From TrEMBL:
GO molecular function, one term: MAP kinase activity
Residues that, per the record, bind ATP: 54
Protein's name in the database: Cyclin-dependent kinase 15
Domain of life, source organism: Eukaryota
Keywords associated with the record: ATP-binding, Kinase, Nucleotide-binding, Serine/threonine-protein kinase, Transferase
Translocase keyword on record: no
Entry GO CC: cytosol; nucleus
Length: 249
């Protein structure tokens, strides 16, 4: 409420709360846990706004994961309606915390709540925002490299925001090749599945296409495979079927 925000702002002035300080945020509940980070719903004691706190626990012998460094360096320079906003970074001896704007759900959860495929209006709305967000990062020579419904946040107003840039890569960084171990298997294009490390924005567009199909039919386009070979077989099976339709049309 407005009164709570006012009290938080007043309290922050009285106690000297500021950005970059762990005491400026309160954990409310655990939202999820990933390979190297735990995400909490929190609140800013500075302004009373809800936030998402991505806490990366550092191992003494390894230090800060490189994916976290890469995500922070890229997100600090990205300001767009369809990119999750990074508010603050908190670094302590035990952890590194990214403070993001709080977004209510993600596309994976949204599709679970709306089984059987989404309404055509919502598909158009989400695809427009997804492609607009991709256009923005691609114009800045950045590849997301890990597009999947879990990494597309959806607000209660229907806003879509690209998130989780831990595998993202700037093409302006001098590097002859990129890793083939990118993108969850279901959303990975054939050339990358076969080991190609010479890829560009088409990598993200393939992922967007897979997500488009998933929103249409209510299930993943190429699901449930155990390895790369099975994934390729599923893609080829669909490709051959479509080619037969086109040639016999």
């Amino acid at each position: 409420s407005f009164s709570f925000i006012f009290l938080c702002a007043f309290h922050s002035q009285k106690t000297g709360l500021q950005f970059g300080n762990a005491t400026s945020y309160l954990n409310l509940e655990k939202l999820g846990e990933g390979t190297y980070a735990t995400v909490y719903k929190g609140i800013s004691r500075i302004n009373g706004h809800l936030v998402a706190l991505k806490v990366i626990h550092m191992k003494t012998e390894e230090g800060i994961p490189f994916t976290a460094i890469r995500e922070a360096s890229l997100l600090k320079g990205l300001k767009h309606a369809n990119i999750v906003l990074l508010h603050d970074i908190i670094h302590t001896r035990e952890s590194l915390t990214f403070v993001f704007e709080y977004v209510q759900t993600d596309l994976a959860q949204y599709m679970i709540q709306h089984p059987g495929g989404l309404h055509s209006y919502n598909i158009r709305l989400f695809m427009f925002q997804l492609l607009r967000g991709l256009s923005y990062i691609h114009s800045r020579r950045i590849l997301h490299r890990d597009l999947k419904p879990q990494n597309l946040l959806i607000s209660y107003l229907g806003e879509l925001k690209l998130a989780d840039f831990g595998l993202a890569r700037s093409k302006s960084i001098p590097c002859q090749t990129y890793s083939a171990e990118v993108v969850t298997l279901w959303y990975r294009p054939p050339d990358v599945l076969m080991g190609s490390t010479d890829y560009s924005t088409a990598l993200d567009i393939w992922g967007a296409g897979c997500i488009f199909i998933e929103m249409l039919q209510g299930s993943p386009a190429f699901p449930g495979v155990a390895d790369v070979f099975e994934q390729l077989l599923k893609i080829w099976a669909v490709s051959v079927f479509l080619m037969d339709i086109l040639f016999n049309f």
